[in-house]
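Thread: quick sanity check before group meeting

JM: Hey all, I'm pulling together slides for Thursday and realized we never actually wrote out the predicted structure for the chain we discussed last week. Dropping the sequence here so it's in one place. If anyone has concerns about the input, flag it before I start.
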Amino acid sequence: MTQDTLSDVLRVVRLRGAVFFNVSGKSQWAAEAPPAKELAPLLMRSVDHVMEYHAVAEGSCWAGIPGGPSVQLFAGDVVMFPHGDAHVVSSAPGMRGNPDMSWYSGTTISQLPLRLAINGENILLSAPSDSDADANIVCGFLGCDVNPFNPLIAALPRMLHLRATEEDAWIGSFTQQAVAESHAKRAGGEAMLARMSEMMFVNAVRRYADQLPEQSIGWLAGLRDRFVGRALALMHEQPTHEWTMDDLGQQVGLSRSALHEHFVRLIGIPPCSTSRSGACKSPRACCSTHAPPSPP
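JM (edit): ok, ran it. Output follows.
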């Protein structure tokens, strides 16, 4: 993969990790989150889009989109919902919870992460630690910009599940640290967790892209190609430049027709919509707005 291109786009996205809950679940429990567009005004008013993730510190649980896919999570696993779908985290698949988050706006929170305990249908705020909980989870909310351009979010699936691996053992340390912060309330804890959650998101995107089958098409698949990845990097490095197919071809070492073929094969669209002069009208939009739909 062309890592510099991904790094460039991540800078444009401007991730902002802000809100964290430490949730413990016991008995037959379920926590349901409403769509991100409803959460954003409550949790992160200054951002365009909110993505929620859940990292399992201890035990196991299920996560899924109502009426859609669900996965079982174990300690060290992470699940993200990049498109802001309503979703449920629960003790068993198919359960539903109460998506009403109005309690949050009336809660006085001196320092994050906020501790929640769910025992059956009961939710307790700032609850004491429960060693008998079936699952201990870190729930984070990442804010990001979607305007004027965010091809990365569009390229991700609605639910992104990453299993714990030895290579990513630091994620397990992150969840344990987040749980510890929920008890200790140490100075600087929120800022530290925010930076770590941004690292976790970048890691999740890299792992997802690396695991894409060779025959995959789409924006992330294009990053892995030597020529398409370089062309994307050029358009992101100089977004106001009126790129033509000839310009891009000369820069990446391909003819106009060959570069066009690479884009269509890997991304599903040509590199830019052209005017009569052959100049790209909107190099940013052509790689996002008209991109193929994201994987299910």
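AS: nice. Residues 273-296 have pLDDT under 50 and may be disordered. The radius of gyration is 21 Å.
JM: adding both to the slides.
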